[in-house]
Amino acid sequence: MKNRVVKIVVYALAGFLVIAQLFRIDKTNPAVDASVDYLATVEVPAEVSQLLKASCYDCHSDETAYPWYTNIAPVSWWIKKHINDGRKHLNFSVWGTYTAKRKAHKMEECYEMVEEGEMPMASYTWMHGDAALDDDQKALLVDWFKKQEAAFKE
Q1: What's the CA gap between 108 and 147, in Å, rounded?
Q2: 3 pLDDT band (50/70/90 cuts)?
Q3: pTM greater than 0.85 (yes/no)
Q4: Which tens digit of pLDDT belongs to each residue from 12-47?
Q5: How far apart are CA 56 and CA 42, in angstroms?
Q6: In this structure, are residues 152 and 104 in contact, taking their beta carbons and an 8 Å threshold?
Q7: In terms of DSSP H, where are the helices of the chain?
Q8: Phi, then psi, of 55 in degrees rounded to 5
Q9: Residue 14 included in any domain
Q10: Contact at 8 Å (CB) between 109 and 89?
Q11: What range does the domain containing 39 cover?
């Protein structure tokens, strides 16, 4: 009886996984107007720019590079939700459309998230080792974000 229940559960799970593959995520990135992108509107040091591209832009811009595992549901659904949430909270691709007050607030959120170790997310850096930040890189970003916050408050 126990073996029969295990077989039913395994077959049901396998069936779910097969059927789930029919429900694909949309991997189309919105059109990018480079003239309003953060890196185009703010003079960013090369090292900071590189860190932003490697650690932030996949989820916080309209320039997401979808890796191979986004072809596998339900993992793809989970990743797409993270990308949508990331863009909703901060989208570097539309930076130039933000008000100065909003820019200052976003910079404050950025340094807080990096200081607290919440960004980049561990689930992201696990699969993207180049996105992980060491202590010096975190300090560089935090310092940059704080300076930017002060500049946008002026």
Answers
A1: 10
A2: confident
A3: yes
A4: 999 999 899 999 999 999 999 999 999 999 999 999
A5: 16
A6: yes
A7: 2-20, 38-41, 46-55, 75-89, 100-115, 122-125, 135-153
A8: -110, -15
A9: no
A10: yes
A11: 24-153
